[in-house]
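At this stage, I put together a protein sequence along with its fold in token form, as given directly below:
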Amino acid sequence: MPVEQISPATLRNLVMEFVTRDWSELSDAGSSLESKIEQVLRQLKEGKVLIVFDLTTETCNLVPRESLPQNMKE
């Protein structure tokens, strides 16, 4: 599903959950929560990061496009 088809609120919540999982590492790097969220949203819109849904665990994650096998990048 293209990122544009996800409601802005849902997308933002998904990104916020992803970013805050490792907040201790982020805060050490000097990034604010808001700037990190905006950075990830930009990467999603640029296609550098993809949302991947795992049917087994029924969870989703954000993954760099380059780390996925070729058949999953479409």
Summary: The two ends are 10 Å apart (CA to CA).
